[in-house]
């Protein structure tokens, strides 16, 4: 199974908003972490736990500024990428592993890596 590795980070549109997003009232930016999951091909568990997965991710609120599926060459999901804000790598790893899709065999946690936002662009028109 081939995994795509391209990620676009879109958080804020203007410099003042960007600073506010990165610091969230702190004197230094909140650390970001790039989380990669691999799809395990368990459609029954995916359907059964979908509502729990969505509720979990929504519950992360501002701790998860970005998330989306990784796609294969045909455009079908084969994993996902999440950007998390956390105090440290352990906290980010714990958050990533707590997704109900991980606990029920829908996704496998591949990696949690420190990530620095170097550029931000406004969202493209849909």
Automatic annotation (TrEMBL):
Pfam families: YCII. InterPro entries: Dimeric_a/b-barrel, Sec-metab_biosynth-assoc, YCII. Residues 33-116 form the YCII-related domain. Gene3D superfamilies: Dimeric alpha+beta barrel (3.30.70.1060). Belongs to the YciI family. This is YCII-related domain-containing protein. It comes from Hyphococcus luteus.
């Amino acid at each position: 199974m081939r995994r795509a590795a391209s990620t676009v980070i879109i958080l804020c549109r203007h410099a003042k908003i960007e600073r506010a997003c990165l610091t969230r009232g702190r004197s230094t930016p909140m650390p970001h972490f790039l989380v990669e999951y691999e799809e395990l091909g368990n459609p029954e568990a995916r359907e059964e736990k979908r509502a729990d997965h969505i509720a979990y991710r929504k519950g992360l609120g501002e701790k998860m500024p970005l998330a989306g599926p990784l796609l294969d060459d045909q455009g079908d999901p084969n994993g996902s990428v999440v950007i998390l804000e956390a105090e440290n790598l352990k906290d980010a790893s714990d958050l990533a592993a707590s997704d109900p899709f991980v606990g029920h065999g829908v996704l496998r946690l591949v990696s949690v890596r420190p990530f620095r936002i170097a550029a931000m662009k406004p969202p493209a028109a849909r």
